[in-house]
Amino acid sequence: MSFKFTEENITRIAQARKKYPTALAAVMDTIYIAQEQNGYISNEVMEEIAIVLGIDKVNVLSVVTFYTMYNTKPMGRYHIQVCTNVSCMLRGAYEIWDGVKEKLELDHMQVSQDSKFSLEEVECMGACGYAPMIAVNEDYFENLNKEKVFEILDSLK
Amino acid sequence: MERIVLPQIPNLNQLEIYLDNGGFESAKKAFARTSDEIIDEVKKSGLRGRGGAAFSAGLKWSFMPKTTDKPKYLCLNGDESEPGSFKDRQIFEDNPFQLIEGAIITCYAIGANVAFLYIRGEYHKWIKLMQKAVDEAYARGFLGEKMKETFGIDFSCDLFIHKGAGAYICGEESSLMNSIEGLRGYPRVKPPFPAQRGLWGCPTTINNVETITNVPAIIKNGWEWYSKIGAPKHPGTILFGISGHVNKPGVYEYPTGILLTELIYDVAGGVPGNKRIKCVIPGGSSMPPLRGDQLEGIRMDAESLKEAGSAIGTGGVIVMDEDTILLKVLIRIAHFYHHESCGQCTPCREGTGWMKKILHRIDEGHGTSKDLDLLVSVANNIEGNTVCAFGEAAAWPVKFMIMSFRDEFEKYVKKDVSIPVPNKVHSMRGTAVPLADLLK
What we know:
Number of strands of chain B: 11
CATH architecture of the largest domain in chain B: 3-Layer(aba) Sandwich
CATH topology of the largest domain in chain A: Glutaredoxin
Oligomer: heterodimer
Order of helices and strands of chain A: HHHHEHHEEEEH
Helix content of chain B: 40-55%
Strand order of the largest sheet of chain A: 2-3-1-4-5
CATH architecture of the largest domain in chain A: 3-Layer(aba) Sandwich
Distance between the termini of chain B: 81 Å
Structural class of chain B: alpha/beta
Number of domains of chain B: 3
CATH superfamily of the largest domain in chain A: Glutaredoxin
CATH topology of the largest domain in chain B: Rossmann fold
Helix content of chain A: 40-55%
Structural class of chain A: alpha+beta
Radius of gyration of chain B: 24 Å
Largest sheet of chain A: 5 strands, mixed
Number of domains of chain A: 2
Largest interface: A-B, 42 and 54 residues
Number of helices of chain A: 7
CATH class of the largest domain in chain B: Alpha Beta
Strand content of chain B: 5-15%
CATH superfamily of the largest domain in chain B: NADH-ubiquinone oxidoreductase 51kDa subunit
């Protein structure tokens, strides 16, 4: 299965490229665009990114494997991120984490059978004053407790 | 009390409202003067970096070479990944144009034509908000080529947003530059400092987003006004992010030098259930913690906190009440630094892992008093032996938590324990005991 960027995404990559004096610098933006299109970064995707930007594939690989927000395997449609760092922990994040693990029957970085959910225990998300929090894909949900988290999970179709 | 970074003006994040409240007037004022005068003004104002090191902003700018054939760059650090720190997102949300105005004044002062605003990847929402503000500023001629027309000067600068992808270390300035260049976020060896060799080998200045947002106010009201706010040696206001066991957590802007107790009890509404405070981390998780019974009289500015044995950091105050199990907190902090270590320097890569393992051993009930000394020893061997300040950030919480709360940690450990060994033969390798004797 080969991967090709859509026309629209090629334009977006060209726009991102314009921000920087080198093509390599646009790699992070391009990986995001690829992840949006493909869901995760596979070997083929990395090859395509390297071709589109005219850089070496190893540069793409080195960046993909360094940063935690690039997925190298398919994640669920709803990627549930639970913060358990200090400020959240003090306000009951582990209760939420244990509850969510039990409810979804998933552990850290696991994906459910139907690919609906994936779960991740994340480091500080910068919502310490509104702790505890979870993020579903790109959206933050703050000032939670276990019941509210379950409500959010139940509302996801 | 006047607020500088987050004024209490509703809808200030809309360009029209910002303009009605004197928006971009400071930029006009700045462009009428020379860049040296602006650097001098900021230097005299005493503005210090809000990213953790509290270094003089004006002094940092003055390190930029005056004559160079290379392009110069400005980086705005909005990576904020320090646990306990969540102030920059408030700027992106409530006052994005003051940040943009600060950026163009800074660009003018240091002679840069391109600024990169680095925002952590998890802040999808705030990146979109900020991008919208930047687009509007472009459309109205406050950024880009059109600036020449708007302000009637021979200077223009661009502002680009660079989205991070989930790496705490990218908040370190040289790591941030590598990340913008499209590399792994490995910190660089200093010197050369960014002002000599920064982005793509060109002179670069890196400032925290909050620092830059202060600049328009300094230009508008003058350095004398700014230097009189708060503590004399660390003037201005700080966005304090108060979290943990308080009734009203959140971001509050107050002048430096405010009493820590005032911040916790009056501003943040005290501790739930009127419990006593066991521990306070005053500046984000990497700063040395303070004992709850020694909070009286501590003021929140760089000098006072240094005297109290801690540091201002990013102003992220984490409060823990008397029922907190500090061992669990320390395990979580150690886990964080182990996870976020970039792996470049051995002391940090290995040391953070060992600190985590030793803490887990204590948690499982197999710890001895010697383990506490061992933890401090490991921390001491990380500190100062790494390329970047991450080593200190990882070592300090462990070292100072154990040193300040030794009495508490002694409760978690025993005098000595016999650790169960699964394979007796293996454990006695190298001794003279014959295998047959063991099997008797």
